[in-house]
Amino acid sequence: MPPKVPHLMSLADLSVGQINRALTHSAALKRASKPLLGPYTPSTRSLPPIEQTLANKTVALLFSKRSTRTRVAAETSTVLLGGRALFLGREDIQLGVNESARDTINVLGGMCQGVFARELAAHSPVPVINALSSLWHPTQILADILTLHEHAHLFGGSSKLKSDSDLLSLRPLTVTWLGDSSNVLHDILVTLPRLGHQVRVGTPPQQAYQCPKPVWDRVKELGCEKNIFWTDNPYEAVKGADVVVTDTWISMGQEAEKAQRLKDFQGYQVTEKLCKEGGANPDWKFLHCLPRKSNEVDDEVFYGSRSLVFPEAENRKWTIMGLFDMLIGRWTI
């Protein structure tokens, strides 16, 4: 009997053990790869190569919108693992124009060995990893969690690894989200509570910014709701926060709502003043998945010592590489 094709649509699909394995594996690949990417020297010549689990394999990258971090992370990860990345934008293929999603994925599955796309897993004969969808963004949250582990010493943890295959131990954190109920938040809600963290969410009171029922159903199914606090008061949301996270208030396709959204999100900008008056922990840190606008977070926070944004962005590469290696290269997680 052939093995079951592994897919990843949301971190809700993974057990805690699988999430931790993905994080540990991504961190190990990062440690092994980084020395190989610098200037060539006699010492680098003797370093062990990265196992080429994608050798002779092609990964189809299906993108319907512009992308910086996701595309660059996916293409460079595939190359490091010995594979070829095939970028397919909306102008490149028939999907959604003259061909159904089912037909497209069956064609791609006959020619490629993995697909990095929005939502095409249902009929795919090869592994599909969700690059981002309207409800979920699993690769972003893996990158966020890896970033927090790497900076565990900033939260009172150790700065020394126990072994080369380990992660820095991270104490239970209070993570505050300020902003829209977006795909990034949704994967936070089904993941961080299961890893022992508290999530505090601050969103405007309008229904448009509340958690969609399919997402909240998964939250309850996984038993995460008891570790989630929801409010429309941003000062209340940041109380006790170790980490403050936000995202764009106006996603691609929502441009017509810009004026109303900016009005609704007044008071939600992440600033030193807001977090101090709201009672965030003195050493709180900041995350943002990018791209960022200054109305979401001011320059003082975004470019200051609290910001982990650019290490977080780099970790998109390593967590995507980890998933490609495990799911597409090895068919396991």
From TrEMBL:
Pathway it acts in? Amino-acid biosynthesis; L-arginine biosynthesis; L-arginine from L-ornithine and carbamoyl phosphate: step 1/3
Q: Which Gene3D superfamilies match?
A: Aspartate/ornithine carbamoyltransferase
Q: Where is the Aspartate/ornithine carbamoyltransferase Asp/Orn-binding domain?
A: 173-326
Q: Per the database record, which ranges form the Aspartate/ornithine carbamoyltransferase carbamoyl-P binding domain?
A: 7-150
Its Gene Ontology biological processes?
Answer: citrulline biosynthetic process; L-arginine biosynthetic process via ornithine
Keyword Repeat carried by entry: no
Molecular function terms from GO: amino acid binding; ornithine carbamoyltransferase activity
* Pfam families the record matches: OTCace, OTCace_N
Q: Which GO terms describe its cellular component?
A: mitochondrion
Q: Which domain of life is it from?
A: Eukaryota
Q: Which InterPro entries match?
A: Asp/Orn_carbamoyltranf_P-bd (IPR006132), Asp/Orn_carbamoylTrfase (IPR006130), Asp/Orn_carbamoylTrfase_sf (IPR036901), Asp_carbamoyltransf_Asp/Orn-bd (IPR006131), Orn/put_carbamltrans (IPR002292)
Instruction: For this UniProt record, give its keywords in alphabetical order, as a comma-separated list.
Output: Amino-acid biosynthesis, Arginine biosynthesis, Transferase
EC number(s) reported in the record: 2.1.3.3
Family per record = Belongs to the aspartate/ornithine carbamoyltransferase superfamily. OTCase family.
The protein's name: ornithine carbamoyltransferase
